[in-house]
Protein: Class I glutamine amidotransferase-like protein
Amino acid sequence: MLTFAFTVFLLLVSAFAQSPRILIYSATRGFRHDSIPTAIEALQIASNTINVRFDNTEDQTLFNDQNLARYDAILFLSTTGEVLDDAGKTSFQKYLNSGGNFIGVHSASDTLVNTTFYERELGAHFDYHADLQEATIDVVGPSHPSTNKLPRRWQTRDEWYNFKSNPRDLGAVVILSVDESTYSGRSLFGLCVIIWTLEIFRIQTLGLAGSIKATHTQRVNKYRMYLTRCHVLYFVAWYQDRGAGTSSGGVSGRSFYTSLGHLNETWRDETFMGHVLGGIGWALQANTTKAFNSSALVGSDESSLTPTESQSGISGTSDTTGTHTPSPTSNNATVPIVYSALLTVILSTLAVALHLL
Ligand SMILES: *[C@@H]1O[C@H](CO)[C@@H](O)[C@H](O)[C@H]1NC(C)=O
Ligand SMILES: *[C@@H]1O[C@H](CO)[C@@H](O)[C@H](O)[C@H]1NC(C)=O
Ligand SMILES: *[C@@H]1O[C@H](CO)[C@@H](O)[C@H](O)[C@H]1NC(C)=O
Ligand SMILES: *[C@@H]1O[C@H](CO)[C@@H](O)[C@H](O)[C@H]1NC(C)=O
Ligand SMILES: *[C@@H]1O[C@H](CO)[C@@H](O)[C@H](O)[C@H]1NC(C)=O
Structure:
């Protein structure tokens, strides 16, 4: 009898134990995805599988110090445009500095476009997307809870985002990229090759002329910029062990971003749900918030949970895949001009041919 009562007691305790809390923010000031309610519902239904509690809002006044401090993560769900005023941004920055975690889904990368700390916490801003269509995603990078259950090549329907910068520059680890040969509407690749080779030629020339180091560096940077402009960043999802949006002196939590999630049907797809829930669960285990750290400054503080998923296999921010970004700076000043010129002519011809195809 006593044992029975104790069991009931334990069951009650576990039923009422506090879980980590996540604030879903889905305000839009630009395009509004009609999948937002579907997404919120899907997350709410799945919340107990990863032991979290979701609150959702579109009220930017809830981005104040006191309210944000109650959450273990803030999830930007398909937000667009300027969804926070200055006070909201200040509180959000403070939250991130205090160990708060960030999760961004789909057009979370098309919001707060001029807010540097947000861009850093996110990893990269959206540039443009190819038409909604099926394509094949490659699982790349180290093993991660958001990709562990995915097939190595995963065919799905969504918008294929291109980004304005390379999240790897901020230390992000890319874990999904889309195979650009499996969908149409990709970039002006041929044209890009012409621009790049011309740039290489100029870099080499300046590099060998050798006199002005500053000019040389500038050219290298410009070259990187051209790479970005030419849209070769076919990334789909990435994470940061320590979100780069924190100001110096702050405690950084984790950051996870996936560009998938456009359609209602996406949120009814078990494979996608496994991906996004894996990312959310991973972000919480930064151990920088109260759910998992009694000395933390933010988060749900009544939690009696211990981290559930094993984090083995995730190590540091090293990323060995690097297949999508050509390395422009290797041999920058060592290849003789004549080879460089020759290369330019050959590649440009090839590029024109490709572009005209
Ligand atoms: C997606 O679902 C929402 C309700 O959750 C509905 O209002 C909307 O029409 C759906 N969109 C499409 C394209 O079916
Ligand atoms: C962002 O900055 C650009 C360039 O300064 C400006 O044209 C644009 O209006 C700004 N957008 C917002 C939403 O502040
Ligand atoms: C957080 O704590 C768990 C459990 O102690 C541990 O497995 C995990 O590695 C920790 N994560 C970090 C980032 O320290
Ligand atoms: C726990 O939180 C404190 C305060 O934010 C932080 O300094 C500490 O590093 C955290 N512990 C872990 C294991 O992350
Ligand atoms: C080549 O470019 C890299 C990266 O910008 C730079 O670190 C290196 O100094 C350059 N090499 C020379 C010889 O200038």
